[in-house]
Amino acid sequence: MNALVFLFLAWIAAQTGLELPTPPSVVLVAAEEMRERSARPSNRVEAIYDRATATVYLPESWNSEALYDRAMLLHELVHHVQEFNQVASQCNAEREQQAYDLTRIWLGEQGVADPNTFLKVDELTVAILSLCLSENRVM
């Protein structure tokens, strides 16, 4: 896992021009704990980045060989790079756009013809997830 995390961090830094951070902690946890840690509780919580502890939480079912699971790790590592580099944003949700953009680029490099379909999202969904609502603005 450490080699994959470092590889992803280096790729993200190369794509963004941001400084390469020290790796975050990566912890595998039960599905119930994933739901408890999620800001948007639902049955479908695939990965979480905790800014306060610089920790990526993945479900214990996470599989390093599965492309989708790797994409979820990459997405959360984008948030780690953003946090480490103190990327300016009006709210944390706004950072989702870059995370999805980079995840889709990476999936394209892996041969995925339609990354949105692969991720089960569309442009409108990503735009909504990236909205700064009054309750999630950075103060």
Description of the molecule:
The protein is mainly alpha-helical and 139 residues long. The protein has one domain (2-136): Zincin-like (2-Layer Sandwich), CATH 3.30.2010. Helix content is 47%, strand content 9%. It contains six helices and three strands. It has helices at 2-16, 31-37, 67-84, 96-109, 115-119, 123-129; strands at residues 25-29, 48-50, 55-59. Strands 1-3-2 form a three-stranded mixed sheet. Strand 2 and strand 3 (55-59) form a beta hairpin. The longest helix is centred in the middle third of the chain and has 18 residues, at 67-84.
Task: Provide tags for this entry.
139 residues; mainly alpha; Zincin-like; 3-stranded mixed sheet; globular
What is this entry, summarized?
The protein is mainly alpha-helical and about 140 residues long. It has helices at about 1-15, 30-35, 65-85, 95-110, 115-120, 125-130; strands at about 25-30, 50, 55-60.
- Number of β-strand runs: 3
For the terminal residues, how far apart are their CA atoms? 35 Å
* Average residue-wise pLDDT: 91
Largest sheet: 3 strands, mixed
By secondary-structure content and strand pairing, the structural class works out as mainly alpha
CATH class: Alpha Beta
Form type: globular
CATH fold group: Zincin-like
Q: Can you tell me the number of structural domains? A: 1
Q: Enumerate the spans where pLDDT stays under 50 for 5 or more consecutive residues.
A: none
Radius of gyration: 14 Å
Range of helix content: 40-55%
What's the CATH architecture?
Answer: 2-Layer Sandwich
User: Helix segment count?
Assistant: 6
Strands side by side in the biggest sheet:
1-3-2
